[in-house]
Amino acid sequence: MNISKKMQDAFNAQITAELYSSNLYLQMAFWFRKEGWKGFAAWMFGHSNEEKEHALKMADLPQSRTSRTRRTSSSAP
Fold this sequence. Notes:
By secondary structure, the protein is mainly α. 74% of the residues lie in helices and 0% in strands.
């Protein structure tokens, strides 16, 4: 069963947003680590991984239903 184009576009937009958030948290984690705030850095690394997991799970669903996911860039949504 195929997913409609509208739904596929919504999935793609959400995947982009999740990966953007992951990258933002990752940047913050590196900054916190550089400043010596190890606890905050660890917390941000965890959030970065969580957002990436969301994106991967969302990408799996349409692919498992024969639709295609599309990633354009990790710039702001």
